[in-house]
Amino acid sequence: MTMFARRAALLAGFLFLYAPIALLVVYSFNASRLVTVWGGFSTRWYGALLANEQMLASAATSLKVAALSAALSTVLALMAAVALERFGRFGGRTLFVGALFAPIVMPEIVLGLSLLLVFVALDLPRGFWTVVAAHTTFSLGFATVAIRARLATLDRSLEEAAQDLGATPLAAFAHVAVPQLLPAIAGAYAMAFILSLDDLVIASFTSGPGSTTLPMRIYSQVRLGVSPEINAASTLLLAFGSLALGALAFVSWRRGEK
Amino acid sequence: MNDPVLRFDRVSKQFGATRAVDDVSLEVRAGEFFALLGPSGCGKTTLMRMAAGFETPDTGAVFIDGADMRATPPHRRPVNMMFQSYALFPHLTVADNIAFGLKRMGVDRATIVTRVAEMVRIAQLQGMERRKPAQLSGGQRQRVALARALARGPKLLLLDEPLGALDRKLREETQFELMQIQKKLNVAFLVVTHDQDEALAMADRIAIMRAGRIEQLGAPGEIYARPRTKFVAGFVGETNFFEGRVIARDAHAIRIETPDGVIEIAHEGFSGDHAIVSVRPERIAPGGAGRNSVAGEVQDVIFRGDHSLARVRLSSGALLRVAADAGALAQGARATFAFGANDGVIVDG
Questions:
Q1: Whether residue B306 sits in one domain with residue B220
Q2: Least CB-CB distance to A167: which of B54, B104, B149?
Q3: What range defines the domain where residue B311 resides?
Q4: DSSP code for A175
Q5: Considering only CB atoms, which chain B residues are within 8 Å of A176?
Q6: CA atoms within 13 A on the CB side of A128
Q7: Interface confidence (ipTM) of the complex
Q8: Which residues of B fall within a CB distance of 8 Å from A163?
Q9: Are A164 and B75 inside 8 Å of each other by CB?
Q10: Which of B205, B231, B257 finishes a domain?
């Protein structure tokens, strides 16, 4: 009986978490235009989505922003992690740590607003690059946490051994530390990518004409009424994120096997 | 006379409040097997890391092959080091680990391949070339670390506790291997160890370190037979100390009044009026004959295979360690133990 109760509790939990998402996926294949009435299986909304140039342009923008901002924040995070782990106590270290991790705890709305004010003050035209900059800032803290945790556990004697064998400190880091940091770097990139991909608030504040991201497009369309086309777009977004996560898990599993 | 491969000239290094290395001068000669021996925290590893370039002396200078190394970073020093943890690169195969240092030298591929094959043969790693360090046993990892460090053909190899991670049986085997490779390649070895047996077995010369200073430097036999200080006598091998006031002396011997009676010990120019004498357990014989004799009760006996080591409670309460034939001493027996005037060595406190 307890066995049954436990199973039921688990099932309820999973239902609570995933039923809405499952529903969204199911209804994206709905032939009917009405969101709540099942009219048979169809992929017509995917077809419609592929014909919706605005939606496609937003998806492309989102992917480009995510790819670029994730790359930038991963590189910066690696540098920040090295500074924090390898350079001991330098002047302004506490301030540096605070500045780095503040965006993690700061409300997104505050971050978005403050970035908007900065861009206005600097008279920067808002568009693609301001969103990239904003997302880099916002995901940097998360990426740093991921890389720094791994860097802290690296055996320093490996890099010393590389130097002893004739590698400059930089070459030793590149040849010996970076390969071992690779899973963490990939993880940091994936995290920054996903954070950027599903951000709505910060993008709303910092984007301009012609740089509407997918979440912004979806949100604005939903205000006009939920259409099955949105369900299809959300399903694709979901599939994309799951694939990225799955690939990451596979890579780290393979490394663990070896 | 050739320059020594490595020379420390009055080097000191301070870590916070502790003086890790305190005014040490030392030379390692070409082709020599040199051991730095001492308890943990005595500064021996710091001294070795100064030779590799991972620590800089606060004062003093390090010379390698006659050249001042003060401004030379680790990657430009003509020495290589074998790390205590081996520090093998986990993402590279055995062959790539060995080739790592060669690749940094900018030698051509063919040379690297032949050199790696040669090191693989010397370290007896045939068939392991494509494995990753995680797929090797402890002994194999140790040999990869050695091969990698020797691949660049250094004149001096620094080895930090090279046998520390191996089990007892493998350790002895590896001692012989290390000695053979060292002689064959004619590379000077500077070994850091806290294991006196290891140092006595392998080294041509040993420097005993304590609290950042070199307490005694010499050949293993000399250090064992003629320790200069109480610390050296106690650290290298087992020993007994007798201590007391000098009550009589002539040109060859002194008589010391100890809590266990007066003993007579040979000396060469000892002039103090208080003496500490070290007597090795194997120099003490159960029975009566001998210039000096002490009496006591056998407290316990440890069987050591070829001999037994007995601890004897003397009348003063001190414990005397005596090596005897297995079975010669029984627990609880009362006996006298004798040693000659030449069986003891006067040491500094």
A1: no
A2: B104
A3: 238-347
A4: I
A5: 89
A6: 13
A7: 0.85
A8: 53, 73-75
A9: yes
A10: B231
Contact B85/A at CB under 8 A:
yes
- Whose structure tokens read 């490996």? A158
What are B296's strand-pairing partners?
B314, B335
CATH architecture of A54-257: Orthogonal Bundle (1.10)
Q: How many domains does chain B have?
A: 2
Q: What are the extents of the domains in chain A?
A: 1-42, 54-257
Q: Is B43 an 8 Å CB contact of chain A?
A: no
Fill in the amino acid letter for A243.
Answer: L
- CB contacts, 8 Å: B152 with chain A: 165-166
Same domain, B195 and B266: no
Q: B191: which strand partners?
A: B35, B159
Tell if the CB–CB gap between A165 and B80 is shorter than 8 Å: yes
| CA distances for A219 relative to A20, A45, A204, angstroms | 17, 17, 10
Q: Could you report the per-residue pLDDT of B328-349, keeping only the tens digit for each?
A: 788 888 888 999 999 999 998 7
Task: Work out the end-to-end distance of chain B between its first and last CA atoms, rounded to an integer number of angstroms.
Answer: 36
| Model pLDDT for residues A52-86, shown as the tens digit of each residue | 888 889 989 999 999 999 999 999 999 999 999 88
> Could A180 and B91 be called an inter-chain contact, meaning their C-beta atoms sit closer than 8 Å?
yes
Which chain A residue shows the shortest CA-CA distance from B75? A166
Look up the pTM and report it: 0.82
